[in-house]
Write a structure and sequence with these properties.
The protein is an alpha+beta fold. It has three helices and seven strands; from the N terminus they run H-E-E-E-H-E-E-E-H-E.
Length: 87
């Protein structure tokens, strides 16, 4: 599937990955906008009226190392047609 379809799948609460990725267990998922309790002094300086730090929606990656990081698509990723849903 193409990247647009992969984005739609993520927004539909599905995990996606590229067939060519070598890392075991890697996948992407959609994180909707929300807010979290601050855990640094800088974050404490930007809280909203409820004491939370607001963030916008983003795509997250579960890495081969087992942690989660924000993810940005490369040109190659955006033009690829080897995206698949991960069950």
């Amino acid at each position: 599937m193409d990247f647009g379809t992969a984005i739609d799948a993520m927004k539909d609460k599905r995990k996606v990955a590229r067939k060519g990725w070598n890392g075991k267990g890697m996948f992407l998922y959609y994180v909707p906008a929300g807010a979290y309790a601050p855990c640094t002094d800088i974050a404490k300086s930007i809280v909203n009226e409820d004491g939370l730090v607001e963030y916008g929606a983003y795509i997250a990656m579960k890495t081969a190392q087992g942690n989660v990081v924000p993810w940005l698509a490369s040109q190659t990723d955006m033009l690829a047609e080897d995206w698949m849903i991960v069950e």
